[in-house]
Design brief:
Layout lengths: L17 H50 L3 H11 L9 E3 L3 E3 L2 E17 L2 E14 L5 E9 L4
Antiparallel strand pairs: 1-3, 2-3, 3-4, 4-5
């Protein structure tokens, strides 16, 4: 009875040599390490994007709080930080504060009172800058600046 082989190799070979097997394993190993490195980097980028998105949302939330305030409320907020704050020309910087529920986020804001010239009038306006800094798997910040007159 003759042996039947499922795979027929050219030239009458019956298998791979040890060198060919080792070379194939080396190539597969290099490809596997490259893929694992790529997956690790994409995971890190995903975490950083999530943190940046949260920081931007928290920054927008604080800016919206300022947008809803009246002129007097913004002025009171500035004077709460520095009693000598004056308008126009005054600038005040808040301390960094932890954001509740987000232990790796710190938020601060700056209020500057400037005069905007419009149609021959000088209008006192607040230049408000809000910054949220995040740390953890990645580091970065989200910053928004807006000019607000305050609600009347």
């Amino acid at each position: 009875m003759s042996k039947k082989y499922f795979l027929k190799f050219p030239g009458g070979q019956q298998g791979f040599s040890l060198v060919e097997v080792v070379l194939a394993m080396a190539v597969l190993g290099v490809l596997g390490v490259s893929l694992l490195s790529l997956l690790g980097n994409s995971f890190t980028f995903g975490i950083n994007a999530g943190q940046k998105s949260q920081a931007l949302g928290l920054t927008q939330e604080k800016m919206e709080q300022f947008s809803a305030m009246t002129y007097e409320q913004i002025l009171d907020e500035a004077k709460h930080i520095d009693q000598n704050f004056s308008c126009p020309g005054g600038t005040v910087q808040s301390c960094k504060e932890k954001v509740p529920g987000f232990e790796q986020m710190e938020r601060s804001f700056q209020i500057e009172c400037v005069e905007v010239q419009a149609a021959g009038y000088s209008i006192p306006t607040f230049k408000i800058t809000v910054e949220t800094v995040y740390t953890g798997a990645g580091q970065g910040s989200a910053v928004l600046t807006s000019y607000l007159r305050g609600k009347r």
